[in-house]
Amino acid sequence: MTFWFITVAMAALVVLILSRSLLRPNESAVADATEFDLKVYRDQLSEVDRDVARGVVSEIDADRARTEISRRILQADANRRGGDSAATKASWKLPAALAIIVSGSAFALYSSLGAPGYGDLALEDRIAFADALRENRPDQQTAVESLPPFVPPETGSAQFAQLMTQLRQAVAARPDDLQGHILLAQNEARMGNFVAAAAAQQGVLRIKEDAASAKDISDYGELMVLAAGGYVSPEAETAFRAALGLDEGDGRGRYYLGLMMVQTGRPDIGFRLWDALLRNGPPDAPWIQPILSQIEPIARAAGVNYSIPAIGPGDAPGPSVEDIEAASELSAEDRMAMVGSMVEGLSNRLASEGGPPRDWARLITSLAVLGDPDQALVVFENAMQVFAGDPGAIDIITAAGSQAGVAE
Predict the structure, then answer these.
(1) Rounded alpha-carbon distances, angstroms, from residue 35 to 30, 42, 77
(2) DSSP code string of 294-355
(3) Residue pair 318/344 in contact by the 8 Å Cβ criterion
(4) In sequence order, which ranges of 370-405 are alpha helices (DSSP H)?
């Protein structure tokens, strides 16, 4: 509230200062013109009196002249009063328009670029704040308890309800029945009872132990997210990271880790994860449409001027090892110009649009080949920050940094 009060007051002050500058010349011009006319008429009255004294004009003609001049004086005075009002009204049209334009433009610009209610934080402070938010966010149980309890749908048949009751009783009686837990998790999720579905899937993981696949673990994480109303809790994050540890290409794990980053104040990292998923595809992957519906505002929050890329397949063009080797047939000057041009294009694209971790790795190694280890180190450190929270991407970036000799 204080912010808006100060903003409105400052805007009003600016408009007032400009208005005074615009109004003062008009008022002065009206006053000067009227005073000049009145001075002329007074001089004419004096001239009539002098003509009468010299006998040039008769008294009767002098009275007529005085009457006419007096009428003109009264008319000029009336015009001055009316003119002041008209000039004032006319002169206020421009300040009024100015106030609307200045205030409206400022509000529109701040609505697009600003963040009402937030202080001006340095990047380091924002990252620290996001880290603290992520570390102290509510756990799964707290998130679930904050939501209304599950109510079975009224559209279900009595027979299905009876079968579900029997299935729950059977699983409770046989806690090590893997197939029973799988069926229970699937059917509870189909009903929308995601809390029970997550519990059943947890049983699946318990029974499978080390044999659990990345899909099994991602299923569990996704059910926890659904049970929490779309919130990625610390427990769900742990599940997705475990799934990515088994399969770094697990799309669901990457999607939900990106969502977690967005929810905890790191849209930059969330954007990079989602952008890479779009570029890698495939177009019919279940996470593509959710990303498409959210990524543009996330890109704006991350400070990226973004256009939706082609969905799949994989990496965007950039200088590869083959490109650099092909350049060896050119003269030294032409070779450096060609490779430098490709590297510059890749660098500009990653800076403005982002890209998958392999493109960042390619840029790091290319800069090292070009004999620019300092810039390679800068890109390496930036990539490590961009893909923080993505173990698979960090491995790719670290390998490229080691190859380029910039990784610790």
Answers:
(1) 9, 11, 9
(2) HHHHHHHHTT----PPP--SSPPP---HHHHHHGGGS-HHHHHHHHHHHHHHHHHHHHHH--
(3) no
(4) 373-386, 391-404
For residue 1, give both structure tokens: 């509230």
**Given the structure tokens 């893909």, which residue do they identify?**
387
Tell me the H-state helices in 136-266. 140-145, 158-173, 178-191, 194-208, 214-227, 234-246, 251-263
Task: Compute the distance between CA of residue 354 and CA of residue 307 in angstroms, rounded to an integer.
Answer: 10
The tokens describing 125, both together, are 């402070």
Residue given tokens 């009539």 in the structure block: 48
pLDDT 10s digits, 197-250: 999 999 999 999 999 999 999 999 999 999 999 999 999 999 999 998 888 889
The amino acid occupying position 256 is: Y
User: How far from each other are the two terminal CA atoms of the chain, in whole angstroms?
Assistant: 48
- Residue 325, pLDDT score: 46
CA dist list (Å): 13 to 25, 99, 108: 20, 10, 19
pLDDT in tens, 313-333: 644 444 444 454 455 455 556
Cα-Cα-Cα-Cα torsion 370, 376, 377, 382, nearest 10 degrees, comes to: 170
